[in-house]
């Protein structure tokens, strides 16, 4: 984590300061934004949100051991007799501090964005690189204008690589994150339909994702899904440095890295690359789409000199962030595929394709929630997903949410009566489904984060 004196931090963000000369050389170790966590020794950053203002807790931060605090100039009544660094905007100052700190480090950064697969790819890349280097990765959902600067400021000075996730909801957001992180390698996993509500078209989504190149090192590496023509289209619109190297991955044999043989195992996926029978890679994740995500990690590893043996070990020992098609076993023996973190048409298709291919279960059920932020075509997208559900593969469909009615309307055209259900109360859904389940069954739970379908998963685990 950042370790600088108070005066050095003030200089890094070009800020005025208010502290006695004898405290100028006090060292700050790390930053904190929440006094409910450990703030001892840190720089407290009082961020301002829609329903909170961290300035109200600055005095508490000092009581708990913070060494110094930022203070926004337009806020009255600053704490007295404590080291304060005055800034115009505390969020902007945190971003400036992260940018300055990143420039002082020798760390190389891999930035990852895309409509789906960001977190999975982040975890895959970090796992492979960790076999050879000291690696830090984005924790949880720290992938926005708050989280990415905090991730940078968590880096130790001897970190070899940082793998950072970059999320967005509109234009300009990825560019900001890329300019802060200054990645050496940029990855775009895919272009989907998420954020159509804000951006209007997949082409505009592609343009927003391609902003990751704004901060890419002039001699950096751009790794992207070569099966997506929109990336190529937008790439042609951008004047890239002649020294930037491009590497494509995907399912087509025209890519630099493509999956060949793919086989689903009990707990994960086996696959080979570029038509070569050896090595046989394994990831403890289910689905062809995850094998495709793994290709970008293999590409990164090859660029950075990780041995083939270490790549194989890194992929097979992956530790995943939760709620990305996480295979769980309930107390009853029921199998649950928890994919409740997010949902878009692309990720829903991938999850259902995986689910269709699963064998060895007596009955298969799906619990599907709304897919959010899809704009004017949201009903059409939900109907398309409903049309993909087939009674020969799935015993029962359980839909939750107002938009999810479209699943039911489509599936009801093909499923026998009594096998398709819609609920507006999760407790009723859980009770109805739980009565049908046995230890020989499997349930897929998937929906947008705002639907909070992890509550269904937690309840089923206890049944």
UniProtKB/TrEMBL annotation:
MF terms in GO: ATP binding; UDP-N-acetylmuramoyl-tripeptide-D-alanyl-D-alanine ligase activity; UDP-N-acetylmuramoylalanyl-D-glutamyl-2,6-diaminopimelate-D-alanyl-D-alanine ligase activity
Alphabetically ordered keywords of this record: ATP-binding, Cell cycle, Cell division, Cell shape, Cell wall biogenesis/degradation, Cytoplasm, Ligase, Nucleotide-binding, Peptidoglycan synthesis
Mur ligase central domain location: 112-301
Domain Mur ligase N-terminal catalytic: 29-102
Boundaries of every Mur ligase C-terminal domain copy: 323-449
Pfam families tied to this protein: Mur_ligase, Mur_ligase_C, Mur_ligase_M
InterPro entries: Mur-like_cat_sf, Mur_ligase_C, Mur_ligase_C_dom_sf, Mur_ligase_cen, Mur_ligase_N, MurCDEF_CellWall_CoF430Synth, MurE/MurF_N, UDP-N-AcMur_synth
Binding positions for ATP per the UniProt entry: 114-120
GO biological process, one term: cell division
Any one GO cellular component localisation term in the record: cytoplasm
Annotated localization: Cytoplasm
EC number: 6.3.2.10
Catalysed reaction, written as an equation: D-alanyl-D-alanine + UDP-N-acetyl-alpha-D-muramoyl-L-alanyl-gamma-D-glutamyl-meso-2,6-diaminopimelate + ATP = UDP-N-acetyl-alpha-D-muramoyl-L-alanyl-gamma-D-glutamyl-meso-2,6-diaminopimeloyl-D-alanyl-D-alanine + ADP + phosphate + H(+)
Broadest EC class assigned to this enzyme: ligase
The organism's place on the tree of life at top rank: Bacteria
Pathway of action: Cell wall biogenesis; peptidoglycan biosynthesis
Family, similarity comment: Belongs to the MurCDEF family. MurF subfamily.
Function: Involved in cell wall formation. Catalyzes the final step in the synthesis of UDP-N-acetylmuramoyl-pentapeptide, the precursor of murein.
Protein name per Swiss-Prot or TrEMBL: UDP-N-acetylmuramoyl-tripeptide--D-alanyl-D-alanine ligase
Protein species of origin: Paenibacillus albiflavus
Upper lineage: Bacteria, Bacillati, Bacillota, Bacilli, Bacillales
């Amino acid at each position: 984590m950042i370790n600088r004196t108070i005066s050095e931090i003030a200089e890094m963000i070009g800020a005025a300061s208010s502290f006695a000369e004898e405290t100028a050389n006090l060292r700050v170790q790390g930053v904190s934004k929440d006094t409910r966590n450990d703030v001892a020794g840190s720089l407290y950053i009082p961020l301002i949100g829609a329903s909170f203002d961290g300035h109200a807790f600055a005095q508490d931060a000092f009581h708990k051991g913070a060494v110094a605090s930022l203070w926004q100039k337009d806020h009255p009544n600053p704490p007295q007799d404590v080291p304060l660094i005055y800034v115009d905007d505390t969020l902007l100052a945190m971003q400036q501090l992260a940018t300055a700190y990143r420039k002082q480090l020798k760390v190389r950064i891999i930035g990852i964005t895309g409509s789906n697969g960001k977190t999975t790819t982040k975890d895959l890349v970090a796992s492979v690189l960790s076999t050879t280097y000291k690696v830090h990765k984005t924790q949880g959902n720290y992938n926005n204008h708050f989280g990415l600067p905090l991730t940078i400021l968590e880096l130790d000075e001897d970190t070899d690589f940082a793998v950072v996730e970059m999320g967005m909801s509109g234009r300009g957001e990825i560019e900001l994150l890329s300019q802060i992180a200054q990645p050496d390698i940029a990855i775009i996993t895919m272009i989907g339909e998420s954020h159509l509500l804000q951006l209007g078209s997949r082409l505009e989504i592609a343009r927003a994702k391609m902003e990751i190149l704004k901060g890419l090192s002039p001699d950096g590496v751009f790794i992207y899904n070569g099966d997506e023509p929109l990336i190529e289209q937008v790439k042609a619109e951008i004047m890239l440095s002649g020294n930037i190297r491009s590497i494509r991955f995907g399912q087509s044999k025209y890519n630099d890295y493509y999956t060949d043989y793919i086989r689903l195992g009990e707990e994960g996926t086996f696959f080979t690359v570029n038509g070569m029978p050896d090595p046989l890679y394994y990831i403890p994740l289910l689905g062809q789409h995850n094998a495709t995500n793994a290709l970008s990690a293999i590409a990164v590893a090859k660029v950075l000199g990780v041995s083939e043996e270490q790549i194989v070990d890194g992929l097979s020992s992956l530790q995943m962030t939760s709620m990305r098609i996480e295979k769980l076993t309930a107390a009853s023996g029921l199998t649950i595929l928890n994919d409740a973190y997010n949902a878009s048409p692309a990720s829903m298709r991938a999850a259902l394709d995986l689910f269709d291919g699963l064998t060895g279960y007596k009955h298969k059920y799906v619990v599907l929630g709304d897919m959010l932020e899809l704009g004017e075509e949201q009903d059409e997208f939900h109907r398309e997903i409903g049309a993909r559900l087939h009674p020969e593969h799935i015993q029962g469909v359980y839909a939750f949410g107002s938009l999810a009615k479209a699943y039911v309307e489509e599936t009801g055209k093909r499923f026998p009566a009594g096998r398709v259900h819609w609920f507006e109360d999760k407790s009723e859904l859980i009770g109805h489904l739980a009565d049908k389940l046995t230890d020989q069954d499997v349930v897929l739970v998937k929906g947008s984060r705002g639907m909070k379908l992890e509550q269904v998963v937690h309840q089923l685990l206890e049944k």
